[in-house]
Design a protein that fits this description.
The chain has four helices and eight strands. A two-stranded antiparallel ribbon has the order 1-2. The chain is α+β, with helices and mostly antiparallel strands. Helix content is about 35%, strand content about 20%. A hairpin with a 4-residue loop joins strand 1 and strand 2. About 15% of the residues have low confidence. It has one domain.
Length: about 140
């Protein structure tokens, strides 16, 4: 790996760390909300769209800040994420793991898929259930 590649690699790693730290720093109050929740979603559960940071694709366990763009509502966990939604299409779209079609996150059926709050987006509940039935994803 040449010097320029190393610099690019470390720059991306540092930028990613800063973004994730900024997002988590801005939501210290959401930890208490999560602890007070009566039921904590498990892997495979549908989660409310407004409790997902659609930029980092992480279930936060508490309502996030709504960002309206082109008549649709997206959710962001911090100011940096809020600014990215109108500027970056990739923050507003994802791929349905079953149909492999593009999905607008504002309209998506969102499912918890990881131990650290990672989520996946589906066109609808039927698409998610079809993926489960096919055996390509484990439900709780």
């Amino acid at each position: 790996m040449d010097m320029i590649s190393k610099i690019k690699y470390f720059s991306i790693a540092i930028l990613t760390s800063v973004i994730l730290t900024a997002c988590n720093f801005g939501n210290k109050g959401s930890e208490a909300s999560t602890e007070q929740a009566t039921s904590v979603p498990q892997i495979g559960d549908h989660v409310p769209n407004n409790e997902v940071c659609m930029v980092t694709n992480i279930y936060m366990g508490a309502p996030q800040t709504a960002v309206t763009f082109e008549g649709k509502t997206y959710y962001a966990s911090c100011e940096l994420c809020q600014k990215r939604i109108p500027k970056e299409k990739a923050t507003r779209t994802s791929i349905d793991l079953y149909t492999l079609k593009g999905v607008d996150k504002a309209d998506a059926y969102i499912v918890l898929v990881g131990d650290h709050g990672e989520v996946a987006y589906f066109e609808n509940e039927q698409s998610y259930k079809a993926l489960i039935a096919k055996g390509n994803m484990h439900q709780k």
